[in-house]
Amino acid sequence: MAGMALARAWKQMSWFYYQYLLVTALYMLEPWERTVFSILLTGLQASWESPACISCLDGVLAVSPGDMKLELHD
């Protein structure tokens, strides 16, 4: 039972990878070129998203429960 679920998940991930190759036109490249491109793309994405995540965490951690006050104005 678990083997079938794993096989289905593998097939789904293979389909997503194939779509990634088609959309980015990487199917035309050598396997080592695909690997270099994917590593560079992943590094670029990580360098773009990391500061945003850290900035959001800083904002969340800066607010303590005592600072939150609900004020209603007429």
Automatic annotation (TrEMBL):
Any one annotated GO CC term: endoplasmic reticulum membrane
Annotated keywords: Endoplasmic reticulum, Lipid metabolism, Membrane, Sphingolipid metabolism, Transmembrane, Transmembrane helix
Membrane topology, as annotated: Multi-pass membrane protein
Main location per the UniProt record: endoplasmic reticulum
Subcellular location: Endoplasmic reticulum membrane
Family assignment from sequence similarity: Belongs to the SPTSS family. SPTSSA subfamily.
Protein name: Serine palmitoyltransferase, small subunit A
Origin species: Mus musculus
Lineage summary: Eukaryota, Metazoa, Chordata, Craniata, Vertebrata
Gene (name only): Sptssa
